[in-house]
């Protein structure tokens, strides 16, 4: 059991390796080109992207919940079953 947990943890670390390296390289390049004002622009762009990512992540849960509500409240047979009760054969 602990082997599976450690494999999952290692895979999670490997999946964040590339984005972490990109962020480090971009921070170093920004500091080299623009100095501290460039880092301020980089920080502002990172913060503005966080709201977008949060909105996209929450949309999946909202869409799934709406789908379940529609699925539970609609008639699976036909539209006329809302008016006339039908029995399952």
Automatic annotation (TrEMBL):
Keyword list (alphabetical) reads: Ion transport, Magnesium, Membrane, Translocase, Transmembrane, Transmembrane helix, Transport
Query: Mind listing the GO molecular function terms for this protein?
Result: diphosphate hydrolysis-driven proton transmembrane transporter activity; inorganic diphosphate phosphatase activity
Q: Into which EC class is this enzyme placed?
A: translocase
Q: Where does the protein end up?
A: Endomembrane system
Which InterPro entries does the UniProt record give? PPase-energised_H-pump
Fetch the Pfam families from UniProt.
H_PPase (PF03030)
Source domain of life: Eukaryota
Transport listed as a keyword: yes
What coarse category fits the chief subcellular location reported for this protein? membrane
Give its E.C. classification number.
Answer: 7.1.3.1
Q: How does it sit in the membrane?
A: Multi-pass membrane protein
Annotated transmembrane regions: 12-33, 39-62
Write down what this protein is called: H(+)-exporting diphosphatase
Which organism is this entry from?
A: Effrenium voratum
